[in-house]
Structure formats: structure tokens, C-alpha cells
Design goal:
Length: 384
């Protein structure tokens, strides 16, 4: 029986961060009871469909993201969590919820824990007021610190997100944020370079000249600072953007990078069968909720209206394997790659990077060196 994860997309936010291009809507539009009903109906249907095709999964991880899942009312979160954990059963090892700092209260932390959550991922992004305001975050550094202190008695696995390359950020203010992170000592840290996504408000501000993008050389320098300082503090950089204390890697995200299957639930969510079929749900919460709450609707008709199916080509599978495996500390196992694709062609493309010390090949595993991590996008693109 295959191991799989469940990802649940909660598409509602009180306000939208300027850099975000994920599907979301204002939380005032949320009909929480009906949305939870829809999520649980979709989960039951997907599990039945997979069983009918002889693909039953052991659910090892659950991840509730968004959007802002911490906006969910306590009663509806508890009902959703109970449905998810019942389906997962005894195989569940990790249950993560994403939270915003100003949603964290003692009461909600207790409810999340009592509902089965054993890992919290909190979006801090910066511990500098001006940088938070520049990207439209609705908390300040003091709120983030209070939230972390509130979560501490309830969870022994907390992950904090930061972003580097922010507007107005300098190497000095980045170090200020890192200092605050290390003082809190979370079990896990995700550190991302700011991306100017095509549809985001931040990109429009940049393109109109009202926001200046951080110079690429400065951003690379910030990445080096992040990697060095977290390594010195005892965090393992087990994936390009992720750092963990021993034993605290994200199991859910690690499964993505290993190419394992996952079941996506909710408007805008994606699924993958672990073979070559990727499924995406329409990013329309109102339509999604209406269809799954229509007791007279045929489930196959619901499927035709809500989902797009994509069969990955051999080229796409090869490129995805190279990209996801090289992002991780473990690297790309050539025995696995060679079972499906041409090793000689890959090694021919890798040769210049092996010679320059940006890639290394050891015991049949191709991986990025520390210097190679800093220019990983260029290397991976060339290997394609």
C-alpha cells in the first residue's frame, strides 16, 4: 500500500499580502460550515475513487494551508480535523496547520492541538516593521514573538517562515530578523527569496516604478548569510529553502520532493497520483462549495466541472525528478534515474558543473555542492 499525504486548501484571508499570487478570497465571503462539508465530501469521494482503481493509500501526513487556515472558527476546524484524522487512522505521523501570528491565541492553540495538530507553520517573514508594512503583512514583530510564545506550551514542532530580498531590506536588517529567529529557536525554519509573481500586487508596484526590486547580487549574498548563520546554529539545510534541527524535517514537504502521491482538497488545490497524473481543482470557492453541497448532483458530473487532469510526459517527469531531487540534501540517485531515463545524457550535461565544483557525484548520487546551491536555478535549467 502506497504512502500519501493530504493537502487541504483554505482559500480565505482577512487581507492579501502584496507578494502573494495563490488563489484566495476575503474571509468575509467564507461560508465555513458549507466549505467544511464540501471538503469532507470531496475527501470521501476521492478515497472511494482510488479504492475502486485498486490504489488505497496509507495517509501519513496532513497539511492545512492557504489562504489563512488559522482564520477558521474553532467548531469548524475541529469538525474538519476530526474527519481528516479519522480517514488517516493510525498511520498519521504529521499534521500541520499554517497560521498567521495575529490569529494565535491560547484558546486556538489548545483547539488545534486537541484536534490532532502536532506541527505549526507560522508566517513571520521579517522581524522589521518597515519590511512587514512594505509587503502588506498584518502583524508586527511583537505580535509574532507573542504568538510563538503562546504556541510553545502546546507544540514541540514549530516552523517559522522568513523572506529575504524584501523591499527596504538590507544585510543588517536581515541579520536582525535572523537574530530574532535564533533567539526563539524553532524546530524548523523556511527561508525564501522574494519572488515577483506575475499576478501579484508587488509586481505591479515594481513595474510601475513605485517599488524597487533588490539587486540580484545582494539577494544572493543574503541567501549565503541565511545558509551560513542557520548552519552555524545547528540547523540542517535539508532542502534549498528549508532548515531543520535534527529530527524535525517537514515530512509532508519531503514527500513532495520524493515524488510521492498526495491528495489535494479544496478550491484551487492540486493532487498527484505518484505516477504521471496531476489534478487541479478550479479556483472558485463558491462554485466548489455549491457543487459538493448539492445532494442531487452526480459525483462524476461534479468531477467534470471542478477538475482538470494533466498526464505528464516523459520529458516532464524527467525534469521534475531532476528539479525536486537536486533541491534536497540527499540529491538524485542515479540508479533510480537510470531506471527511467538516460544517465549518460544527464552526466554529459552535468560535466561542466562537476568540473567546476558546483555539482558532486559520490556513491552514485548527484548533488549540489554548497556553492552550487547558490546558483541552483541555473544548474537545474541546464540539466533539463
Amino acid at each position: 500500500m502506497d504512502t500519501a499525504g493530504i493537502y487541504v486548501h483554505i482559500p480565505y484571508c482577512r487581507s492579501r499580502c502584496l507578494y502573494c499570487d495563490f488563489y484566495s478570497e476575503g474571509s468575509r465571503r467564507a461560508d465555513w460550515p458549507r466549505y467544511v462539508d464540501a471538503l469532507l465530501a470531496e475527501l470521501r469521494w476521492k478515497l472511494r475513487e482510488q479504492a475502486s482503481r485498486g490504489k488505497e493509500y496509507e495517509i501519513a501526513t496532513i497539511y492545512i494551508g492557504g489562504g489563512t487556515p488559522s482564520q477558521m472558527p474553532a467548531e469548524e476546524f475541529t469538525r474538519l480535523a476530526n474527519g481528516l484524522t479519522t480517514c488517516a487512522g493510525a498511520h498519521l505521523r504529521e499534521f500541520t496547520i499554517e497560521v498567521n501570528p495575529d490569529d494565535v491565541t491560547d484558546e486556538m492553540a489548545r483547539i488545534w492541538r486537541d484536534s490532532g495538530v502536532n506541527r505549526v507553520s507560522m508566517g513571520v517573514q521579517s522581524m522589521v516593521d518597515a519590511e512587514l508594512r512594505a509587503i502588506g503583512r498584518r502583524h508586527d514583530p511583537a505580535t509574532a514573538l507573542r504568538a510563538y510564545e503562546t504556541l510553545g506550551p502546546y507544540f514541540d514542532n514549530i516552523s517559522l517562515d522568513i523572506i529575504f530580498g524584501l523591499p527596504y531590506q538590507t544585510p543588517e536588517t536581515l541579520n536582525q530578523t535572523i537574530d530574532s529567529m535564533l533567539a526563539m529557536r524553532p524546530e524548523h525554519i523556511s527561508a525564501y527569496s522574494l519572488m515577483y509573481e506575475e499576478r501579484s500586487a508587488l509586481t505591479k508596484l515594481r513595474d510601475s516604478g513605485r517599488m524597487q526590486e533588490t539587486d540580484e547580487d545582494i539577494t544572493v549574498g543574503m541567501f549565503r548569510t541565511v545558509s551560513r548563520r542557520f548552519a552555524e546554529a545547528g540547523y540542517e539545510q535539508y532542502e534549498i529553502s528549508n532548515y531543520a534541527r535534527p529530527g524535525y524535517r517537514s515530512q509532508h514537504n519531503s514527500a513532495y520532493w520524493a515524488g510521492l502521491p498526495y491528495i489535494g482538497l479544496g478550491a484551487g488545490a492540486h493532487s498527484y497520483d505518484g505516477d504521471r497524473c496531476r489534478t487541479s481543482c478550479v479556483p472558485d470557492a463558491k462554485h466548489y462549495t455549491r457543487l459538493w453541497n448539492d445532494s442531487s448532483a452526480d459525483v462524476h458530473d461534479i468531477g467534470r466541472q471542478l477538475y482538470d487532469y494533466e498526464l505528464l510526459s516523459d520529458t516532464e517527469l524527467r525534469e521534475e525528478m531532476v528539479m525536486t531531487r537536486l533541491r534536497t540534501r540527499e540529491g538524485l540517485y542515479l540508479s533510480r534515474y537510470g531506471g527511467e531515463f538516460d544517465i549518460e545524457e544527464l552526466l554529459k550535461k552535468a560535466a561542466p558543473y562537476l568540473k567546476s565544483g558546483l555539482l558532486e557525484l559520490r556513491d552514485g548520487i548527484l548533488s549540489l555542492t554548497r556553492d552550487g546551491v547558490m546558483v541552483s536555478d541555473e544548474i537545474i535549467a541546464d540539466l533539463f
